[in-house]
Design goal:
Blueprint (H helix, E strand, L loop, with lengths): L7 H9 L4 H53 L4 H12 L2 E6 L14 H13 L3 E5 L6 E8 L2 E8 L7 H42 L13 H48 L4 H25 L7 E4 H13 L5 E6 L3 E4 L1 H18 L3 E8 L2 E8 L31 H11 L3 E6 L5 E7 L2
Parallel strand pairs: 6-8
Antiparallel strand pairs: 1-4, 2-3, 3-4, 5-7, 8-9, 9-11, 10-11
Helix pairs in contact: 2-3, 2-4, 2-5, 5-6, 6-7, 8-9, 9-10
Length: 442
């Protein structure tokens, strides 16, 4: 769908905004706060600082013009005028008879103080002058060319500039920082319950059905937490109901198979008996698979498990001294998982590889996205377009790979992986067959 021109700016803004709720809420608080401070600073500058600065520069120019006229009219009384003016106006004066000023400024006017001083001196002072506001941070120097010499005036910066500016800016910055810190604290208190709900949902997705969650926070957040707990209880009840149903059906069928097997034992050794016994063996194997599928969603609690030790035990048990399975790499990796379920998933993957290939290579490594258990076989493999089909229940492929069994092995393994927040991926193996990657987040 093509976006209209007026829709594009909103997309650009969304790219700039933080992705998290806490960051966006902080922006909502910080942006108006900064704009408000800028507005107050502009109003203060326009209404107070600029006006006060003009008045101070005006008074200073008048004082300087008065002193200059007195010395110009009576050069022989310059020392007395300088003495009286220094005491009255708290400034330093120095008069050099017979001196002249060079044309031009000491430095260009590039600040509000320069502009205000130059404007007022130009209006109120009747003599040539030049000023210096850069040589010292706390004083202003003005040189006036009189008919009989040069008068140098050094005045504190407060005579031409308001000191309340620094105080106002300091208070504004301090109040902004305080308001920002308070906003961060209170927003964090509001976000913490949401993060608790997210963690509980993540742990529930990994099979931890008893993850604690305290309902707290604002009304809306409390409602989200309460609805999550209700949803979790309903899902858990449905899973338990389906698990009990599948287990019950499989148990009843196994009872019937046991009866039929006892009746077959009473028959003679005939071809029909052997055929029926083979059918019963296959049926019992299917029932065991259904029971395993049902038990895969049981009430096993997660625990901190050494995946390396678990994998070694599975390999030793399934290899049984045949030498068909090689454990090429096994790093010490610990993860919070349901040990029985993970053992069942690895067992299904290894047994499936044993059915398809002659030799297997198994490894366990710790990667950035979790623990990787890789199983490579040298069998016929699976075509890329059929790999997703292999994970569907009761689905057996006829391309030379994944044949035999009930079609539940990969289904159970993937369900277990996903219940831990992981995944199982199929790919081509360097050995020529199929590679199964079992990934578990840490």
């Amino acid at each position: 769908m093509k976006l209209l021109p007026f829709e594009r700016p909103s997309l650009e803004v969304r790219r700039v905004l933080p992705r998290g709720f806490f960051g966006r809420a902080l922006v909502i608080v910080a942006v108006p706060l900064v704009l408000l401070q800028l507005l107050l600073a502009a109003i203060f500058y326009e209404e107070h600082w600029e006006e006060v600065g003009r008045q101070l520069a005006y008074q200073f120019a008048n004082q300087l013009n008065s002193i200059s006229k007195q010395i110009a009219n009576a050069p022989d009384q310059a020392d007395a005028v300088i003495s009286q003016s220094q005491e009255a106006f708290n400034i330093r004066l120095h008069y050099e008879p017979g001196e002249t000023l060079d044309a031009g400024r000491l430095h260009p006017a590039d600040s509000y103080l320069d502009y205000a001083l130059e404007r007022m001196l130009g209006r109120r002072l009747d003599y040539s002058y030049r000023y210096d506001t850069r040589s010292h941070d706390d004083t202003v120097e003005v040189q006036v060319e009189l008919p009989s010499g040069v008068l140098t005036v050094v005045a504190p910066i407060e005579h031409v500039s308001s000191s309340t500016t620094n105080i106002f800016i300091s208070l504004m910055i301090m109040s902004s920082v305080l308001a920002f810190v308070l906003a961060v604290y209170f927003l964090r208190q509001q976000v913490l319950p949401l993060r608790a709900v997210a963690r509980a949902a993540e742990r529930f997705g990994r099979g931890d059905t008893h993850a604690p969650l305290v309902v707290r926070g604002a009304t809306e957040v409390r409602r989200v937490a309460q609805e999550f707990l209700t949803m979790r209880d309903r899902i858990q009840a449905q899973i338990e109901q389906r698990t009990e149903f599948l287990a019950g059906v499989s148990h009843d069928l196994r009872t019937l198979v046991t009866r039929l097997r006892l009746q077959l034992e009473l028959l003679g050794d005939t071809d029909d008996r052997n055929s029926m016994k083979a059918d019963l063996d296959e049926m019992e194997f299917m029932i065991e698979s259904y029971l395993a599928f049902a038990q895969g969603e049981g009430e096993e609690a997660p625990d901190n498990v050494d995946l390396g030790e678990l994998l070694r035990n599975v390999v030793v048990r399934l290899d049984n001294g045949s030498g068909r399975i090689e454990l090429s790499r096994c790093e010490p990796v610990r993860a919070r998982v349901r040990a029985g379920a993970v053992r069942r998933a690895i067992t299904n993957l290894v047994e499936n590889a044993l059915r398809q290939g002659h030799r297997l290579e198994v490894s366990l490594t710790q990667q950035r996205d979790g623990a990787h258990i890789v199983i490579d076989d040298d069998g016929p493999g699976i075509r890329a377009e059929q790999r997703e089909e292999a994970f569907k229940p009761f689905r057996q492929l006829d391309n030379g790979g994944m044949s035999g069994g009930t079609g539940l092995g990969l289904t159970i393994a993937r369900d277990i992986a996903r219940s831990h927040g992981g995944e199982i991926e199929l790919a081509d193996s360097p050995a020529g067959g199929l590679r199964a990657l079992f990934r578990i987040p840490l």
